[in-house]
Amino acid sequence: MSYDRYVAICKPLHYGTLMDSRACATMAAAAWGAGVLNSLLHTVITFSLPLCQGNVVNQFFCEIPQILKLSCSASYLREVVVLLFSVSLVFGCFVFIVVSYVQIFMAVLRMPSEQGRHKAFSTCLPHLAVVSLFLSTAFFAHLKPPSISSPLLDLTVALLYAVVPSTLNPIIYSMRNREIKHALSKVLQHALFQLP
Questions:
Q1: Residues 131-156: pLDDT tens digits?
Q2: How far is the CA of 116 from the CAs of 98, 106, 110, 138, in angstroms?
Q3: Does pLDDT of 29 surpass 90?
Q4: How far apart are CA 191 and CA 12, in angstroms?
């Protein structure tokens, strides 16, 4: 989506040729292929580890760090290699998004029209909000220090990063629609004025 926004704002006259159906299919196939490869590697490596502390994961879903806690094998080397692959994949996507948005913001700030700048920012900000929300909750879930880790906090954080971004995604993207904005403001006003 960041590349789509980049082409739409920075190269609007070339949009039809740069974002044709072949380019969209190639990007979708690359994203799906990377996701499937990443998941497959994690699944094969993680489930080949022997479990000696039971098979009950104290989580809503089987996350790799939780499964590694159950493993009695000291050979985490395979999983570390796969985690490095995942981190490099995520880092590459993150750099691509940041570079795209830096170029977009530089192009938008050069626009002479206030209305044009507003329209360009309103096109980009929903995607940036969704990506930031997902990344911040996922980073907190996986990079929090073990000293503040507890089973309840782990469950809460996993629920937050798995449910909140996907729940807010349609709301954030639909806020560009005036009817939705009007309906949401009416609901919020009604809810706020009904409080005792």
A1: 888 888 777 777 777 677 777 887 78
A2: 22, 13, 10, 34
A3: yes
A4: 42
User: Radius of gyration (Cα) for the chain, nearest Å?
Assistant: 21
Please name which of 5, 18, 2, 161 lies closest in space to residue 92, comparing C-alpha atoms.
2
Taken in order 149, 54, 35, 170, the sign of the CA dihedral is negative
Average pLDDT (57-61) is 71
Residue 8 burial class via C-beta count within 10 angstroms: exposed 0-12, middle 13-18, buried 19 and up: middle
CA distance 142 to 135: 10
Q: What is the 3-state secondary structure (H, E, C) of the chain?
A: CHHHHHHHHHCHHHHHHHCCHHHHHHHHHHHHHHHHHHHHHHHHHHCCCCECCCCCCCCCCCCHHHHHHHECCCCCHHHHHHHHHHHHHHHHHHHHHHHHHHHHHHHHHCCCCHHHHHHHHHHHHHHHHHHHHHHHHHHHHHHCCHHHCCHHHHHHHHHHHHHHHHHHHHHHHHCCCHHHHHHHHHHHHHHHHCCC
Confidence of residue 43 (pLDDT cuts 50, 70, 90): confident
Residue with tokens 């349609």: 170
Residue 101, pLDDT score: 87
Q: What is the pTM of this model?
A: 0.69
Residue 112, both tokens: 């002479």
